[in-house]
Structures are given as structure tokens and as C-alpha cells.
Design a protein that fits this description.
The chain is an alpha/beta fold and about 250 residues long. About 40% of the residues lie in helices and about 25% in strands.
């Protein structure tokens, strides 16, 4: 007849330290899974807010600027006016796997307000030097554009200094000072008119934003799976040690 192992035997030696390590690692893995799930919920909430804004009725500029600043982002609007010759480039912009620039032009609306407009993307080689100024001139005459409103961006500490025509972030106050044109705070981003893979001509209207859910949910399941594997592995090891005790009646 086998003698049942005592708890002190099961808790002796290496088993005690293994249990402590497994408990700590399991807690860490579960916390990582919960953190990734929180990021997933945050991303979903952001996407929902963006979709709600994009689905709203287009506003004119005066009505949009009358909204609180936090409610303006991604709101559709319609602008009518004429472009001024002032243009700058927004560096390090991606489109369909390529790297390049966005062309930012100044539109003077019919009521006299100057607005920075993101006309779209050009490839990197097209923005080298200053020839882009003549290759991609602003449209002439009265223009009516459908756009979404974007807010200014805060420069990070390591953001390089901008030149007079090429910027790493959009700060309409600073850009307006360089161009000598007081600009509305924020900018209008022209929307694509169809879903074709590539528009016929440059600049290509910029995509509004990445609306994907990201990989947070996948990482959530991954961390939880690691925790389950760890606990199951620990129980298997503990079961084998218990079996060895029952068989040989020896301390672990």
C-alpha cells in the first residue's frame, strides 16, 4: 500500500521555488494580456469616434471652427475658394507601401479665411529639391473641395528642425508665420473621390487614417495562452513528482 505524500514533502526543495516562479510568471503573463486587451478597447473606441465623425454631415468652415476643438477632428467639410501660390511639403508620408511627401497648400475661402489644405501624396523622388513647386502647382480658379478636418500635431522632442518648405509635423501657426499668411488652426485633408487603387494623377489624395484594429487582440490571446501553457506544464510536473513520491515514498 502506498503512503500518501505529506504537504511538506510536496513543498520541499525545488518544488517550492518552482511554484513561486510559476505564480509570479503567471501573474505577469495575465497582466500583459489584460494590458493588450485594454489597448484593443482603446483602439476600438478611437475607431468608433472617427467613424462617427466621418459619417456626420459636411459643415462649412465657419460652423466647423465654432465647434470645440476636440470635436473638429475628422469632421467632413466643404470649402470653396481659390488657392494661393504658397505651398510646403509634409515629410515622411506613406502611401501604398511607398514613402514620400504630402503637399500642403493655402486655400483662401470666399469669406477671406486662409486654410491649409493637404492636397495629397507625391513620391519621395518627386519632392527632392524644389522642382515640385512647378511640377505640382496649385489648381487655378475657384475650387470647391470635399475634405475632413485634422488638428495640428505636437512636435516630439527629437523632431528635426523644419526647413522653410519641408516640415516634419503640421503646426499651422508656425507654417503660417513662415508663409506670411495667418492660418486657421488645423488643416483640411482632401478626400479621395473613388476607391481605385491609385488615382490617375499626382498628388494622390491622402488616406484619412489607419482604421485597422491592430494586433492588440492577437497579443491578448497570445499572453493568455502562454499563461495557460505555463500552469498546465507546472501541474504536469507537479503530478509527476507526486507520482514519484507515491511510488518511492521519497522526498522531492
Amino acid at each position: 500500500m502506498h503512503v500518501l505524500p505529506r504537504m511538506s514533502d510536496l513543498w520541499a526543495g525545488r518544488t517550492k521555488y518552482l511554484t513561486v516562479v510559476v505564480v509570479i510568471l503567471t501573474v505577469v503573463l495575465v497582466r500583459l494580456g489584460l494590458w493588450q486587451y485594454d489597448r484593443h478597447l482603446e483602439r476600438s473606441a478611437i475607431n468608433q469616434r472617427i467613424n462617427t465623425s466621418l459619417a456626420s454631415q459636411p459643415l462649412n468652415l465657419a460652423d466647423l471652427l465654432a465647434l470645440p476643438a476636440a470635436e473638429r477632428e475628422y469632421r467632413p467639410l466643404t470649402l470653396t475658394g481659390s488657392y494661393e501660390p504658397n505651398q510646403v511639403l509634409w515629410r515622411n508620408r506613406a502611401f501604398k507601401g511607398g514613402t514620400g511627401y504630402h503637399i500642403l497648400s493655402v486655400l483662401r475661402t470666399d469669406d477671406g479665411q486662409a486654410v491649409l489644405v493637404n492636397r495629397g501624396w507625391i513620391p519621395y523622388e518627386a519632392g527632392v529639391g524644389e522642382r515640385w513647386q512647378t511640377e505640382f502647382p496649385v489648381p487655378t480658379g475657384s475650387q470647391t473641395i470635399a475634405a475632413v478636418w485634422r488638428i495640428d500635431q505636437e512636435a516630439r522632442e527629437n523632431t528635426p528642425e523644419a526647413s522653410s518648405t519641408k516640415w516634419f509635423t503640421i503646426d499651422t501657426g508656425a507654417i503660417g508665420s513662415v508663409l506670411g499668411v495667418p492660418l486657421a488652426a488645423g488643416f483640411a485633408q482632401i478626400q479621395p473621390t473613388d476607391d481605385t487603387e491609385r488615382p490617375a494623377t499626382l498628388p494622390y489624395p491622402a488616406l484619412t487614417t489607419d482604421m485597422g484594429q491592430g494586433s492588440h487582440l492577437g497579443y491578448t490571446f497570445q499572453w493568455f495562452a502562454f499563461a495557460v501553457i505555463l500552469v498546465v506544464g507546472y501541474l504536469v510536473v507537479l503530478g509527476r513528482r507526486t507520482h514519484a513520491l507515491l511510488k518511492h515514498n521519497q522526498p522531492l
